[in-house]
Amino acid sequence: MKNISIFGTSSDSGKSTLTFIIAKLLQDSGYSVAPFKAQNVSNNSTVADDGSELAIAQAFQAEVLDIKTSYLLNPILLKIEAKGRTQLILNGKVKKTLTPKEYYKDINKLKPIVKKTFKELQKKVDIIVSEGAGSPVELNLMDKDLSNIYIASEFDTKIILVADISLGGVFASIYGTYNLLPKQLQKNVIGVVVNKFRGDMSLFDNGIKIIEKEFNLPVLGVLPYNSLNLGFEDSASLFNYSQNKSNTILNIAIIAYPKMSNFNDFESLIADDSLNIEFIKGNINLDSYDMVILPGSKSVIEDLSWLQQNGLFKKLQTTKSFIFGICGGYEMMMDRICDKYGVENEPTKTNGLALIKDKVLFKKKKNLKKGRYTIFNMEVDGFLMHNGVSYKYPLYYEDKNIAGTFLHKIFDNDNIRDKFFKRLDKDYKSFNYQEYKDKKIDYFTKDMLKYIDTRKIIDSIK
Q: What's the CA dihedral at 352, 353, 355, 357 to 10 degrees?
């Protein structure tokens, strides 16, 4: 069996989504399948089943397939910190912090690691569906491209191109990407999927003919624009979320500071028709919101500085709205934050919002745990991923209109949403989020597969 690579003609073209759609197609056809991404750049990660750190995209793809997660799905994860620093996570563990230039200088040392991981994963499944990164034809970086060119060349994968028609210039992006690929990889291209089409799809019938006749590329499908609202990988996908706001009873503000991370914590809130979710990037009156959430941050001290510069720092200290902090946001609520080892930034100390009487010290070793915890007097599922340690409140805090926790995915728990939102409005009604999520994924995947030439894909890998 041949493995498959999903190449995008641009960033945010839909590679992550098409990866799990194609993987699900193959799984339903009787093959064992795993998603893979050699190198991911994202501040959104989770704790895998083996205790390693894993990019959200690959974790979500694995969830769609209902398979166990491990670092094998994503051996290299880069997390952007402050002042040009990048944290390198190798095989699920923090390796070191370096600059992009330093990373690319050592890229050839990483290739054998990626190759070994891919081979280990290959032993476990029939087919790997490998997600590319950005564009595969950045000519100045092609020799350093682990996720696209290296994997496709090293393992002779079949290739599917995916293009975002909503950006405009879809013909140029398809033609240019295909023709700039190395000749040996052009031969492995199965075809192209045109993604995010809005409106009457028959209007693109002639477009299909042009691509197939003029470019000599099969069109495997034209997918309609459909907002899944799950598995957000980056801010580009997050801020394109859609909500039904006809029945909202509570207004929730989420502070979107520059180094916001793990905003997948809020997928359950976006899915909740009772909540109006707004991401706040500027100095506005917070008193009009029922709850203000401080999300995770990859650089807590830098984001605190951002809050001070734009005036939100004082607004958070004086607002009458309920404030809830998660991980980095929870740390910001403390009196004092000390990063004496330079874990997230230059070695420094700074004042927090002083909403919680405690101090935070950044430790060198990251706390990575996944499981069931007792917080807020109830049992909840979630994961921990933080270097900061609170002296008095190591897991959570609650008092009057202030609450916070280090635990991610906290709002995925129906009992937690019910507890806090009923406090704000007695008419709030919780719902079964996991059931909603399962149905949404199942419907979305089946709907998308209606528009794809599934037989051509399956035949091409035999």
A: 20
Q: Is residue 198's pLDDT more than 80? A: yes
Residue range 201-260, pLDDT digits in tens: 999 999 999 999 999 999 999 999 988 888 876 655 565 667 777 789 999 999 999 999
Q: Which letter does DSSP use for residue 83 in this model?
A: T
- For the record, the structure tokens of 47 come out as 């704790």
Q: What is the pTM of this model?
A: 0.93
CATH of residue 170: 3.40.50.300
154 and 96 in a single domain? The answer is yes
User: What's the CA gap between 59 and 156, in Å, rounded?
Assistant: 25
- By annotation, the residues acting in catalysis are 327, 408
CA distance 151 to 149: 6
Structure tokens at 275: 């909540």
Residue 100 and residue 86: Cα distance in Å, rounded? Answer: 7
Q: How far, in Å, CA of 164 to CA of 9, rounded?
A: 8
Tens of pLDDT, residue by residue over 298-352, are 999 999 999 999 999 999 999 999 999 999 999 999 999 999 998 887 889 999 9
- How many CB atoms neighbour CB 344 within 10 A? 25
Give yes or no: residues 151 and 223 share one domain: yes
pLDDT tens across 270-304, in order? 999 999 999 999 999 999 999 999 999 999 999 99
- Expressed as residue numbers, the domain containing 420 is 250-427
Which residues 6+ apart lie within 8 Å of 309 measured at CB? none
- 328 and 410 together in one domain: yes
> Which positions ≥6 away from 172 have C-beta within 8 Å?
none
- Region of 253 on the Ramachandran plot (φ > 0 left; ψ -120 to 50 alpha; else beta): beta
User: 408 near 296, Cβ under 8 Å?
Assistant: yes
Please tell me the total count of domains within the chain: 2
